[in-house]
């Protein structure tokens, strides 16, 4: 398994709404076209209305690379910056979990 946790902070409430729309459109394409993307979830942060947390889990690093090469992801990466004040990315090394059939 290969994973990421990303914290995005939007510039303002208008930017957050536009970012959420971009995320929703991108998520539809991820669900429909990426069998190697096991989990791709987006969360609002309670008490921090401009922050979004992405939790992404891929079957392996090759599935992540396939994700990154998709047209909808390339579009997302190109468009997101106009809405964001900051981005923090953590690459995750899987140890254990529940809810996903995981092979190491």
From TrEMBL:
InterPro entries per UniProt: ABM_dom, Dimeric_a/b-barrel
MF terms (GO), sorted A to Z: monooxygenase activity
Keyword Oxidoreductase on entry: yes
Keywords: Monooxygenase, Oxidoreductase
Species assigned in the record: Streptomyces radicis
Residue ranges annotated for the ABM domain, each copy included: 2-94
Protein name per the record: Antibiotic biosynthesis monooxygenase
SUPFAM superfamilies xref list: Dimeric alpha+beta barrel
Pfam families xrefs: ABM
Superkingdom of origin organism: Bacteria
